[in-house]
UniProtKB/TrEMBL annotation, chain A:
<keyword id="KW-0349">Heme</keyword>
<keyword id="KW-0560">Oxidoreductase</keyword>
<dbReference type="InterPro" id="IPR014241">
    <property type="entry name" value="Cyt_c_oxidase_su1_bac"/>
</dbReference>
<dbReference type="InterPro" id="IPR000883">
    <property type="entry name" value="Cyt_C_Oxase_1"/>
</dbReference>
<feature type="transmembrane region" description="Helical">
    <location>
        <begin position="154"/>
        <end position="180"/>
    </location>
</feature>
<feature type="transmembrane region" description="Helical">
    <location>
        <begin position="381"/>
        <end position="405"/>
    </location>
</feature>
<dbReference type="GO" id="GO:0016491">
    <property type="term" value="F:oxidoreductase activity"/>
</dbReference>
<feature type="transmembrane region" description="Helical">
    <location>
        <begin position="192"/>
        <end position="220"/>
    </location>
</feature>
<dbReference type="GO" id="GO:0006119">
    <property type="term" value="P:oxidative phosphorylation"/>
</dbReference>
TrEMBL record, chain B:
<dbReference type="InterPro" id="IPR014257">
    <property type="entry name" value="Cyt_c_oxidase_su4_bacillaceae"/>
</dbReference>
<protein>
    <submittedName>
        <fullName>Cytochrome c oxidase subunit IVB</fullName>
        <ecNumber>1.9.3.1</ecNumber>
    </submittedName>
</protein>
<keyword id="KW-0472">Membrane</keyword>
<keyword id="KW-0812">Transmembrane</keyword>
<dbReference type="InterPro" id="IPR005171">
    <property type="entry name" value="Cyt_c_oxidase_su4_prok"/>
</dbReference>
<feature type="transmembrane region" description="Helical">
    <location>
        <begin position="52"/>
        <end position="73"/>
    </location>
</feature>
<dbReference type="GO" id="GO:0005886">
    <property type="term" value="C:plasma membrane"/>
</dbReference>
<keyword id="KW-0560">Oxidoreductase</keyword>
<feature type="transmembrane region" description="Helical">
    <location>
        <begin position="85"/>
        <end position="106"/>
    </location>
</feature>
Length: 618, 107
C-alpha cells in the first residue's frame, strides 16, 4: 500500500516526507540508508588497505594516505556503519515488539538520526579538505594532539556531533521501553531483542559521556591551546586512553548485544521452540552490560599500570566470558530437538556461533595480561576484534535484515541470492581474518603501511586480501538482492515466518500507528500463545478509539545542519578568527530552531475512530 | 488540588491530608536547604581549615541533592523503581570509574 502511494506522490513530496518524518519505521529506513552508505565507504577503504598489503614494499598508497585510510576505516565502521545499522533494526522492531504505537520521543528520535548523518558527513568532508584524520580510530594523544592539518579536528567535531545523536537515541529507547510497554508486557516477558536494546541504551547513556568529555578536552588541546594531554604543560596523555576506553569497551558491547538479541529472536522462530533459558539469557545480558564497565584497562595492559592493576582488569575481563558462554549454550539448546528451518537468516545465525566463539577465545587469550605483551598492537589483535565485530555484529545485522526485511519493506529477500551472499561472505571472512592470527604471532605489527620481503609475511597477506574480495562480492550480491527484491518481489503477509513475538501481529504494511488497538500480552512470545489457543491475532487490551500521533517536523534536520555548519567554523577559526562568524551562524541556526521548538505548541494530531474502522487512517 | 467530583468524601479527605503532609515536608526541606546554604557560605567566608570545610561542604551538598530528588522531584513516591536503579547504578559505576582513574593515574 505504502509503495503505491509513494508512486502516486512525486519524488519531492516523498523526500519531504522522509526529511520531516518522526515515524520510527521511516527513521529505521533512514538509518538503514545512512548506515549502508557509510558501510560501503568503510568497505572501500578496507579494500584499499588490503590491496596495499598484498605484497611487500607495495606503493599502491603512500604511508600518510594509508594512515588516513586506516583511521577512517575504523572510525567509519564503528560509529557510522555498525551503530546506525543496529539502530535501524531497533527502530524498526522494538516499538512493535513491546506493542507501542511510537517511541517515547519521536522528535528526538529524528534528531538523533540527523545528528548522526551530519556528524558523519562532517567527518568525511575531511577527505576533500586537506586530508582525513590519521591518528587511528583510538586517536591516542600525543599523536592526535600533534597531528598536523585539520584531519583530527574533523574527527573530534564529527564524532562529537554524531555522538550526541547516539546519546539522544539511547535515551529515547530507554524511556520507550520503560514507559510504553503494552498492558501485560512485564520486564520478564520482553523479547530478548528488546532486552538487549534496553541494556544497550543504558550502556550508551553511561558510556558516551566519557567520549564526549574526552573529545572536548582533545578539542581544547588542538583548537584552543589548552594542555590536558600535554606533559610539557603539566597534562597527562594517558588520561585520553582512559577516557577513550571507558567509553570504548562498553561501545563494543553496545555493538554486540543487539546482535545477540537478533539471534535470540531468529533461533526460536526457526526452531519452533521457545528460547532456551530465557531468564538466564536476560541475566547474562544484564551482567555483560554491568561488567562491561569494569574492564576498560585491558586495552592498556602495556601502558605500565603495574601488575596489580593489570591482574584486576585481566580477571574482570575473563569474567565476561562466563555470561557470554551461557548465551552460546542457550542458543545451542534452543535448537536442540526443535524443528529447524534453515534459510538465510538462520545461516547467518549458524555461521555466527562458531565464528564468534573463536573471537571470544582469542579474547580470553589477550585478556591474560602477560601474554598480551606479545599480542598487543600486532595483527593478532586485528584478528580478534574482527572475529567478534564481523563474525558477531555484521553477521547479526545481516541476519536481522533478512529476518525483519518483510516487516520493514513487506517483501522477503531472495533466498538463493541470500545464500550466495552468506557463503561468499562467510568464506571470505575466515580467509581474511583467520590467517591474521598467525601473521600477528609471526610479528606483523598493526597499523604499519608495509612490510619487508624478507619477513615471510607475504603468503598470509595474499590470502587475507583474497578473502577481502570475497567479502566484497558477498556485499555486492546483497545489494543486488535488495534491488531485485524491491523491484520484483511479492508482498507477503504480516507474519511470513510463523513468528512468536508481537511485531508479527501487525498487518503488512504496518500502519503508521502500528496497532489500531493496543494488544494484551499474556506471556512470553505473546503471538505464539494466541496461536496455540487457536486465535488468529492478538486480543486487544482496549476498545477501538481515537489515536493520538505526533506531527512531522523539519526542525531536527535544521538543528543538525546548524551544528554541521558550526563545526566548520570551529575547525577553521584557528587559521583565521573570521571563521568564528561561521561558528556563530551555525550555532544561531541551532538555537533558533530550538527556540521555535520551545515556543511553538505542537499537540500532534488524532486519527479518528471512524477512519480506523474504514481501514484508512493514513 | 481541584475538587474531584467522582471521589467519595473519605477519599477526598485522605488525599487532602496527604497533600497537606507533603506540603509540610516540602516547606521543612526548603527551609533546611536554605539553612545548609547559609552554613556553607559562612564556613567558607570564616576562613576555617580547608581539610575541615571541604568534607562538610560535600556532605551538605549530597544531602541537598537527596532533598531535591526525594521531596521536590517526588522520587519518594511509588513507581520510581526504574529511575532509582538507573540513578544508583549510574552513580556506582561513575564513582568506581573515577576512583580507579584517580588511583591509576596519580598513584
Ligand atoms: C570474551 C569476550 C572478550 C574479551 C575477553 C576481550 C578482550 C579483549 C582485550 C584484552 C583486548 C585488548 C588487546 C590488546 O589491545 O592488546 C581486546 C581488543 C578489542 N576487542 Fe575484545 N574482547 C572480548 C569481546 C569483544 C567483543 C564482543 C568485541 C566487539 C564486538 C570486541 C572488540 C574489540 C576491539 C575493537 C578491540 C581492539 C581495540 C583497538 O585496539 O583498536 N571484543 N579485546
Ligand atoms: Cu575491551
Amino acid at each position: 500500500m505504502s509503495t503505491t502511494i509513494a508512486q502516486k506522490r512525486g519524488i519531492g513530496s516523498m523526500l519531504w516526507d522522509y526529511l520531516t518524518t518522526v515515524d520510527h519505521k521511516k527513521i529505521a529506513v533512514l538509518y538503514l540508508l545512512g548506515g549502508g552508505f557509510f558501510f560501503i565507504i568503510g568497505g572501500l577503504e578496507a579494500l584499499a588497505i588490503r590491496i596495499q598489503l598484498i605484497k611487500p614494499a607495495n606503493d599502491f598508497v603512500s604511508a600518510g594516505f594509508y594512515n588516513e585510510l586506516l583511521t577512517m576505516h575504523g572510525t567509519t565502521m564503528i560509529f557510522l556503519a555498525a551503530m546506525p545499522l543496529v539502530f535501524a533494526l531497533m527502530n524498526a522492531v522494538v516499538p512493535l515488539q513491546i506493542g507501542a504505537r511510537d517511541v517515547a520521543f519521536p522528535f528526538l528520535n529524528s534528531l538523533g538520526f540527523w545528528l548522526f548523518l551530519f556528524g558523519g558527513l562532517l567527518l568525511n568532508a575531511s577527505w576533500f579538505l586537506g586530508g582525513a584524520p590519521d591518528a587511528g580510530w583510538t586517536a591516542y594523544a600525543p599523536l592526535s594532539t600533534t597531528s598536523p592539518g585539520h584531519g583530527v579536528d574533523f574527527y573530534v567535531l564529527g564524532l562529537q556531533i554524531s555522538g550526541a545523536g547516539t546519546l539522544i537515541a539511547g535515551i529515547n529507547f530507554l524511556v520507550t521501553i520503560v514507559n510504553m510497554r503494552a498492558p501485560g508486557m512485564t520486564y520478564m516477558r520482553m523479547p530478548l531483542f528488546t532486552w538487549t536494546t534496553f541494556i544497550v541504551s543504558a550502556l550508551i547513556l553511561f558510556a558516551f559521556p566519557a567520549l564526549t568529555v574526552g573529545l572536548f578536552l582533545l578539542m581544547f588541546d588542538r583548537l584552543f591551546g589548552s594542555g590536558f594531554f600535554d606533559a610539557s604543560m603539566g597534562g597527562n596523555s594517558v588520561i585520553w586512553e582512559h577516557l577513550f576506553w571507558i567509553f570504548g569497551h562498553p561501545e563494543v558491547y553496545i555493538l554486540i548485544l543487539p546482535a545477540f538479541g537478533v539471534f535470540s529472536e531468529i533461533l526460536p522462530t526457526f526452531s519452533r521452540k521457545r528460547l532456551f533459558g530465557y531468564t538466564a539469557m536476560v541475566f547474562a545480558t544484564v551482567l555483560i552490560g554491568f561488567l562491561g564497565f569494569m574492564v576498560w584497562a585491558h586495552h592498556m595492559f602495556t601502558v605500565g599500570l603495574g601488575p596489580a592493576a593489570n591482574s584486576i582488569f585481566a580477571i574482570a575481563t575473563m569474567a565476561i566470558a562466563v555470561p557470554t558462554g551461557i548465551k552460546i549454550f542457550n542458543w545451542l539448546f534452543t535448537m536442540w530437538g526443535g524443528s529447524i528451518r534453515i534459510n538465510s537468516a538462520m545461516l547467518w545465525t549458524l555461521g555466527f556461533i562458531p565464528s564468534f566463539t573463536i573471537g571470544g577465545m582469542t579474547g580470553v587469550m589477550v585478556a591474560a595480561a602477560p601474554a598480551d605483551y606479545q599480542y598487543h598492537d600486532s595483527y593478532f589483535i586485528v584478528a580478534h576484534f574482527h572475529y567478534v565485530i564481523v563474525g558477531g555484529v555484521v553477521f547479526g545485522i545481516f541476519a536481522g535484515l533478512h529476518y525483519w526485511w518483510p516487516k520493514m519493506f513487506g517483501k522477503i529477500l531472495d533466498e538463493t541470492l541470500g545464500k550466495i551472499t552468506f557463503w561468499t561472505f562467510f568464506i571470505g571472512f575466515h580467509l581474511t581474518f583467520f590467517i591474521q592470527h598467525f601473521l600477528g604471532l609471526m610479528g606483523m605489527p598493526r597499523r604499519y603501511w608495509t612490510y619487508g620481503a624478507d619477513q615471510q609475511l607475504e603468503l598470509g597477506n595474499v590470502i587475507s586480501t583474497i578473502g577481502a574480495f570475497f567479502m566484497a562480492i558477498g556485499a555486492i550480491v546483497f545489494i543486488y538482492n535488495v534491488i531485485i527484491t524491491t523491484a520484483k518481489g511479492e508482498m507477503v503477509s504480516g507474519d511470513p515466518w510463523d513468528g512468536r513475538t508481537l511485531e508479527w501481529a501487525t498487518p503488512n504494511p504496518t500502519p503508521h500507528y502500528n496497532f489500531a488497538q493496543t494488544p494484551l500480552v499474556r506471556g512470553l512470545d505473546p503471538l505464539w500463545i494466541e496461536k496455540t489457543e487457536g486465535r488468529k491475532g492478538m486480543t486487544p487490551a482496549e476498545p477501538l478509539g481515537d489515536i493520538h500521533m505526533p506531527n512531522p517536523s523539519i526542525l531536527p534536520f535544521i538543528m543538525s545542519l546548524g551544528l554541521f555548519i558550526a563545526g566548520f567554523g570551529f575547525i577553521y577559526q584557528i587559521d583565521d578568527p573570521r571563521w568564528l562568524i561561521v561558528a556563530i551562524v551555525g550555532m544561531g541556526i541551532l538555537l533558533g530552531a530550538m527556540f521555535i521548538r520551545s515556543v511553538k505548541d505542537d499537540h500532534g494530531h488524532h486519527i479518528h475512530k471512524e477512519d480506523l474502522e474504514k481501514g484508512a487512517g493514513l | 488540588m481541584s475538587e474531584n467530583t467522582n471521589s467519595t468524601t473519605t477519599d477526598l479527605d485522605y488525599k487532602k491530608a496527604k497533600k497537606k503532609e507533603e506540603m509540610k515536608q516540602q516547606v521543612v526541606t526548603f527551609a533546611l536547604m536554605i539553612v545548609f546554604t547559609i552554613i556553607a557560605f559562612t564556613m567558607v567566608t570564616a576562613g576555617l581549615d580547608k581539610l575541615f570545610v571541604i568534607p562538610i561542604l560535600i556532605i551538605l551538598a549530597v544531602v541537598q541533592v537527596g532533598f531535591q530528588l526525594y521531596y521536590f522531584m517526588h522520587m519518594s513516591h511509588k513507581g520510581h523503581e526504574m529511575p532509582s536503579i538507573m540513578f544508583y547504578g549510574g552513580t556506582a559505576v561513575a564513582f568506581l570509574t573515577v576512583l580507579t582513574m584517580l588511583v591509576l593515574v596519580w598513584w
